[in-house]
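User: I'm writing a tutorial on reading structure tokens. Could you give me a worked example: one chain, its sequence, then its tokens, then a sentence or two explaining what the tokens reveal?
Assistant: Sure. Here is the example chain.
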Amino acid sequence: MPSIVTSHLLQRLQSLERFQAVNCDKVVYAFDFEELVIAKEETYKLLPMLQTLELTMMTKMEQVWKGDSQLMSLCNLNRLKLDYCLELKKLFSPALQQTLLSLEHLEVICCYKLEETFGKKETVDIQEAQAIASPSLGKLRFILHSTENPLRSLHYRKPGPA
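And here are its predicted structure tokens:
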């Protein structure tokens, strides 16, 4: 089982507020929307109502999200807990980070290969620069990162004067 939630199912979960998965040791991606096709004129976003996401004992999971992160909106996500996700390396792309307007609680425990929580892009165009300057993570109050290896990067810059 490469993913828990496929593109087909994900489209039907627009009202999902809480998602918890435990001990899914064959899962490589929690959410796979790589094959999702949406017309360019649509403003369709995935998981806009999700408030809590907890993934525990996902020993083979390499990524939480597989697909174009611009299709996602985690604007209501306020709690994220990852525990014992041994193969996870990166969590949020820069585009997905911009939708984290409500995130207050981030807990990462025993995710030994996690290198980036909030990713960065080497090249940024003007439109992306404006998006990066927009407020995100402004409500983040609690971060717990408990592993034997330190994060290589936690890229976050609060908007405001330099």
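What the tokens reveal: The chain is about 10% helix and 25% strand. Confidence is low (pLDDT under 50) at residues 122-134, 155-162.
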